[in-house]
Amino acid sequence: MSLAESYGHKVEEGLLSLLGKREPAGLYEPVDYILSIGGKRIRPVLCMMGCALYKEEEVDKSLFPALGMEVFHNFTLLHDDIMDRSEMRRNRPTVHVKWDERTAILSGDAMLILAYQLIARTSAAILPRVLELFNRTGLEVCEGQRYDLSFETRNDITEEAYLEMIKLKTAVLLGASLQVGAIIGGASDADACSLYRFGNDAGMAFQLQDDWLDVYGDAGTFGKPIGGDIIINKKTFLLINAYNNLSSAGRAELTRWIDKKEFDRDEKIAAVRNLYDEAGVSGNAKKLMDSYYQQSLVHLEKAGGSDELRDELKAFAFQLMERSR
What we know:
By secondary structure, this protein is an all-alpha fold. The chain is 75% helix and 1% strand. It has a single domain (3-322), classed as Farnesyl Diphosphate Synthase, CATH 1.10.600. The two termini are 20 Å apart. The chain has helices at residues 3-16, 25-36, 42-55, 63-84, 95-98, 101-119, 127-151, 159-184, 189-216, 219-222, 228-231, 237-245, 248-259, 265-279, 281-301, 307-322; strands spanning 88-89, 92-93.
């Protein structure tokens, strides 16, 4: 069993014992539900690995903050699903579908408070640094979500603007999870910042892989229907890159599918995917992913700590790049 798998088991055990039976059930059952329907547990595992990189014997001190990172992440998903009108999450009904929208909003609010309670369960000596990092990151995630929402009504989104959005919405939380762990593990400021940059770049590759899987993944393993981003005309790297690389006729055809109000779902997905193939989008996305991955390894080498743990982190980042869900 790898160290990441071992920490993953600790995270699952921690999440199972997090709430117990609390009242009112209408508030806490949705929290239990979203925390129990799976997920890759990337952020809490990274937090614990960030601590272990510098002080493995004290890794248990990072467990509660790691759980806080996971609760915060799932809080953002719960509210994102409301904003996106998503009906499925991890092959299960979303909270606002299973219960209702008001319940989902309130349970999400409770999760944010729970996340703070967990993050705060660390040494008083480092708590100000941890909270400052968490607060900054939380605001950045909200900024990223706001950009993402604004993209829905804009047709002038550049690849650079998209990459900045996913950095804020996704990558910074991976970086912060590692940096919180590093702070708990006693890393120097320079090493903790290098580890943050490793997580940030790995997070960029992770989100680009997520975009790629939505178009080219396997529906049985991805956790949600393939082509969902195509159906809702979501501004992803793949869509923006296709516009940049298609012929004028290809761009006109892509625009025609985007503007269509009535269509057969499978037909639209197939047609847009063919246009993506014509534009070489899959290869372009993979090339950019690899660039971020290679950048992340440069930062990891600068982060110091245990050679063995750095190898574990490198392997974990590679798994994120090669995952199928």
